[in-house]
What we know:
Blueprint: E1 2-6, H1 13-24, E2 27-30, H2 31-40, H3 51-65, E3 70-73, H4 79-91, E4 96-102, H5 106-115, H6 128-133, E5 144-147, H7 153-163
Parallel strand pairs: 1-3, 1-4, 2-3, 4-5
Helix pairs in contact: 1-7, 2-3, 3-4
Amino acid sequence: MLIIFSGLPGTGKTTLARELARRLGATYLRIDTIEQALKNSSLRIDPVEDAGYAAGFALAADNLRIGRVVVADSVNPIDLTRSAWRNVAERAGCEAVDVEVICSDPAEHRRRVETRVSDIASLKQPTWAEVQGRDYAPWNSERIVIDTTGKPPAEMLAELLDRLPSPGNS
């Protein structure tokens, strides 16, 4: 199964995706980590354009083909990337589940964005203005929506686990 996390920066997406991967013993792929590694590499790829997603798709496919559950963590802002993730699962003969993580309280979302510290060396965190101005297309496909407003990570994880299909039971 490929579990595809999407959402704006500061919504709690990475916190939830990591906890889910830990709980499931799944392979965890974070596009921010891949993109920063490309920027820090000897090639100094910046901007990375689609390279981070392309690498993520390839790593996900490799892991799905050997029977791993994969948790993919990215903003995933447009239908093109959302469809591409689902296509990775389809080509690997696996189920794909989309999870959109939101923070419905603008004040809490802003506080998170303005106070978070990156755990990826050299990664520049977006400002609140950059998050608000980010192109994030409306969804036109089915997904699980998790609102993280006012919820501790354990509660978010329990809600998601309750709503996820069991791998192989779509």
